[in-house]
Amino acid sequence: MPPRAIRYATDAGSLFFPGRADDFFPLGPGVSEAALCAEMARAAYIRHEEPSEKARLAGILGRVGFTVVDHLDADGTQGFIADGQTREGRAIRVIALRGTEPDDPRDVLADIQAWPQPWPGAARVHAGFAKALSPVRQRVMSAIDGSPREVVVTGHSLGAALATLVASVRPSTRLYAFGSPRVGNAALAAMIGPARQWRYVDYVDAVTTVPPPQGEVGYVHLEPAAFIDADGVVEAGLSDAEIRGADERGIPLRDLTDHAPINYVAALMGLPA
């Protein structure tokens, strides 16, 4: 097995404050769409309050030929919209939504409001996630509807949940979700379908196990999923049941460190597709 292009990270900073990293896009633009979106999802953690951080984000995305179209920042929900090209030369628009910031109580509140609420069609979704999307929903939808480019929505953790909600109501989009919790019921999953979603689970990532499946609420994951094993090897096309039961292989708190965005990036960098 070839060595990983990026080391596996066990430090708290990679898990809790990924936006502070200085190692974005180490392989440049010549990576798969999945790897590109994994890095976009990590870059969504860069804070927008300071002009210097906005400039830093612009510089990071410029390394792979992307230009920021809009910064999303409303009532605790953040992300960005950027235009660029895939390595194959296709013009795309990426909408990246930020995951949970542990020092922002609004994010924590969104995560724990796990009761269901109605969604278009027969879907029922996590109320906290729907509420977190609400402040930026109209701008995101306008960015999708008004774009002549292919549109990809992505995010990590809470950001993956928000991206899933966006993809469910915009069938023209593709979804890349990293370390996503369960977002809604089977009707929500049916709104997206397997052909335009790629959900990644890093080994024993604890966040991918919540909220609990089925029960009265009926929470399910999008399927199939791509599973990243203990050595960083990606196996696609698995059901949620098929990716459970792994051991931690001697890494302390691996169910937490596997959730770090950089560890999704590490597994996906260098993949041929």
List keywords for this structure.
alpha/beta, Rossmann fold, 9 helices, 273 residues, two-stranded antiparallel sheet
- CATH first level: which class? Alpha Beta
Under CATH, the homologous superfamily reads Alpha/Beta hydrolase fold, catalytic domain
Estimate the global geometry from the Cα principal axes.
globular
Content of β-strand: 15-25%
Q: Quick one: biggest sheet? A: 8 strands, mixed
Stretches with pLDDT under 50, minimum 5 residues:
none
- The tally of helices reads 9
The radius of gyration is 17 Å
In sequence order, what are the helices and strands, one letter per element?
Answer: HHHEEEHEEHEHEHEEEHH
What is the correct CATH architecture? 3-Layer(aba) Sandwich
Count of separate structural domains = 1
- Measure the end-to-end span: 17 Å
Q: What proportion of the residues is helical, as a percent range? A: 25-40%
Topology, number of strands: 10
Mean pLDDT: 91
Biggest sheet: strands side by side, in what order?
A: 1-2-3-6-7-8-9-10
Class computed from helices, strands and strand pairing: alpha/beta
Classify the fold: give the CATH topology. Answer: Rossmann fold
In short:
The protein contains nine helices and ten strands. It has helices at 12-16, 33-43, 51-62, 105-112, 127-145, 158-169, 186-192, 254-257, 261-268, and strands at 67-74, 77-85, 91-97, 116-118, 124-126, 150-156, 174-178, 197-202, 225-228, 234-238. The longest helix has 19 residues, at 127-145.
